[in-house]
Structures are given as structure tokens and as C-alpha cells.
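Exercise 7b. C-alpha cells:
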């Protein structure tokens, strides 16, 4: 059985993961308006990953006898000045997610819930990958600057990304 304190923290993270999905959906719409199919694809996969992350937490709470309670979701940002700015926001957002997952793991440690600690190890490792992916694309965008040809080449590379449903836990 999951503790009430940990259940509350998991529920907050479920809501935040759904909010993350919503943020990436807004970013995806921006890139679609810019006719950047590769960036749109990359962000579509982020949308799907965030849903999978939320559902992993959701299923975990249920499997531990807890109650899932979804919170309100704020509207995400709608416009950016460039794809560079989008990916600056991607990295900032992933850093926030990392801090939230770490805080959730801290609560699991405090209440001595070894099962939750073990479960959250996957999320901790996933966040290392998420931040690294965002950092790499951001670094490339900073190198590209205003070079439209280079931007289109990167867009073509990002179009090759494929969604692989994560095995969580």
C-alpha cells in the first residue's frame, strides 16, 4: 500500500507529466505552423513519451492500492520567436521535470518505500536522456544560427526519429 504522502506526490507528478504533454503539443503546433516536419515529428514523439510517463506513474499508483487524482492543467505557452527559443524552453522544462522526479524520489526515501524508490530509478535515468537529447539539439541550433539550409538539414534528421513505447519500471 502506498502512503498518503507519496500518493499525493505521485498524483502531482502525473498531472505535471500530462501538463508536459500539453506543452510539447503546443510546441509541436508551432513547428507545424513553421512547416518544419522534422521538428514537428520530434515534438510529437515527446508528446507520446510524456503520456507514457504519466501513465506509468498512474498505473503504479493503482498497482499500489492508491487513488489517482488528476489536477488542473494550465494553458501552455502558444508562441515562440524561433525554433531555437522552442528548444531553450524544452531544455528548461526537462530540467524542471528532473528536479520534480528527484523530489519525488526523495519523498519515497523519506517514507522508506523501497518499491517506489526502485520504480523511480527508471524515471531518473530517463531524465538524464531527456536533458541530453534537448541539449544536443539546442547546441546544434546555436551553431546553425540563421543558416536556413542547416536548419532544414537538422529538420530532415529529426524527421527520422521514431516513437518506441518505453518499458517503465
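Sequence design result:
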Amino acid at each position: 500500500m502506498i502512503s498518503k504522502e507519496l500518493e499525493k506526490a505521485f498524483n502531482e507528478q502525473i498531472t505535471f507529466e500530462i501538463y508536459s504533454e500539453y506543452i510539447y503539443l503546443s510546441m509541436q503546433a508551432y513547428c507545424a505552423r513553421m512547416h518544419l516536419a522534422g521538428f514537428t515529428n520530434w515534438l510529437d514523439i515527446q508528446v507520446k513519451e510524456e503520456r507514457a510517463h504519466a501513465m506509468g506513474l498512474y498505473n503504479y499508483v493503482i498497482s499500489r492500492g492508491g487513488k489517482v487524482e488528476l489536477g488542473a492543467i494550465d494553458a501552455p505557452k502558444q508562441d515562440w520567436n524561433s525554433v531555437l527559443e522552442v528548444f531553450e524552453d524544452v531544455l528548461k522544462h526537462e530540467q524542471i521535470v528532473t528536479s520534480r522526479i528527484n523530489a519525488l524520489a526523495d519523498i519515497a526515501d523519506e517514507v522508506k518505500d523501497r518499491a517506489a524508490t526502485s520504480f523511480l530509478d527508471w524515471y531518473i535515468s530517463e531524465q538524464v536522456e531527456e536533458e541530453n537529447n534537448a541539449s544536443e539539439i539546442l547546441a546544434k541550433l546555436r551553431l546553425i544560427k540563421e543558416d536556413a539550409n542547416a536548419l532544414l538539414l537538422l529538420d530532415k534528421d529529426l524527421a527520422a526519429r521514431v516513437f518506441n513505447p518505453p518499458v517503465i519500471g
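Instructor comment: The mean pLDDT is 97. Residues 48 and 90 are 15 Å apart (CA to CA).
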